[in-house]
């Protein structure tokens, strides 16, 4: 059943008179708690669309709806809406308001008039989430571009929005931090936040998004699941995009009869399992939900996991690993790496945040359901 959180209806917008429309009759519906990616080449109108959705700009014509009601542009109503709908801009310099890191992250929560203790907790949690706790006293403008991008993400996380709009969130980040950002996006989604993301990285969005909207020359030319769009090669290239590698490989292998076209693999792990289609015995994936303060070393010893490959996934697992100083093999992309280890016939254990269990088992479920291998799942309470 459709449950739109944000909608545009015939929205038009231009920055100056007598210039072409930057947004041209854009009609789009973004569903609540659906992982949504906005795709398009530079200049397609993605960033402008985001500023319209967050009421930073008002359409020249057409309408924007939030929770089914047209946006009111009165200051009080806009402030209320923005307390629930946060935007992470592509350029971090557009979002830095204070000179010291912890002051900047506290800016949003303080404007929400939260108690001092709650502000401090949100700052602590947000800085830990983006791996910047040790920089809390640093001047923001002395940080690198990637570090400033982490700080702006922390500032948005500290607001605890209901809807998070992320404009090219992994651009300019090293691969490991990009992986962490996607993990944060998944955790927010699993916690009930509607996450909307733009990215030029179609491999990244294909592995993550449930639905895509494609922008081209200010128009929305496609809305829906990814596979029908990527199947239309002409539309893909006209939109200035490249199809994701997993999709291309699957199309090529299915066209020559090596694999069936469906189910579509979306990750390297899923693609590897589909190509291998091994009937040999796979290992067991142990998924252990852990809370803040859990002793991972004790869990490893008590359950006889000492010789197994280990991974972590999600915020409470990262805090538990940080506090217990446990040795972890896969600190990044834990679910995929541990699942690949199981495909090789070995067992693996993944310590994860309780809300992340469904995400942690997704590739193993895909592999088992497709009959490509039989990975045993041991999911503890």
Topology of this protein?
Layout: E1 4-13, E2 23-31, E3 36-39, H1 46-53, E4 61-66, E5 69-70, H2 75-82, E6 85-88, H3 101-111, H4 116-129, H5 145-157, E7 163-167, H6 175-190, E8 194-198, H7 202-208, E9 211-216, E10 219-224, H8 226-231, H9 233-238, H10 245-255, H11 268-276, E11 284-289, H12 296-302, E12 309-313, H13 315-324, H14 334-343, E13 348-352, H15 357-360, H16 362-370, E14 376-379
Parallel strand pairs: 3-8, 3-9, 6-7, 7-8, 11-13, 11-14, 12-13
Antiparallel strand pairs: 1-2, 1-4, 4-5, 9-10
Helix pairs in contact: 3-4, 3-5, 4-5, 11-14, 11-16
Key features of this structure:
Rossmann fold, 14 strands, alpha/beta, single chain, six-stranded mixed beta sheet, 16 helices, Cobalt-precorrin-4 Transmethylase, domain 1, 39% helix, 20% strand, 381 residues
Short description:
Helix content is 39%, strand content 20%. It has 16 helices and 14 strands. Helix 3 crosses helix 4 (116-129).
